[in-house]
Write a structure and sequence with these properties.
The chain has 140 residues and is of the alpha+beta class. It is 25% helix and 36% strand. It has a five-stranded antiparallel beta sheet, covered by helices on one side. A hairpin with a 2-residue loop joins strand 3 and strand 4. The chain is elongated, with a radius of gyration of 17 Å. The relative contact order is 0.24. The model has no long low-confidence stretch (mean pLDDT 95).
Amino acid sequence: MPIRASDVAVGDVYEDVLVKDLKRTQLVMYAGTSGDYNPLHTDDVYCREAAGYPGVFAHGMLTMGMTGRIITDRFGAENVKKFGVRFTNQVWPGDDLTGKAVVDVIREDNDETLVDLTVTTTNQKGQVVVSGYATVRVGT
């Protein structure tokens, strides 16, 4: 059941482990699902020899989708009004990712109670790989 307004306070923190030991298989599955077969995400030889990377890395939108679960698992996908991110570091196979959402503001707008959140995802080294925001509707 989605969180209600009475259950939310400014400063609340929600944190989840999004993935442990990201597998290349997950990158391939996402490529197939999304249709994004960019060789940066699927071809190690291309990454090393043509692009200068040590190997393939995750699609930004895969990381964004994982990050979104922090919001949808608590507030319900139907209550998400806004969600945006900035990709700040690459995500590599083998990474562990942890997502966090912090309640910044609770406000009323057009007869709705809205919650503004700051969202971040970090890897096992503590590096932020995604930073962003969300606005969700909560029931009374």
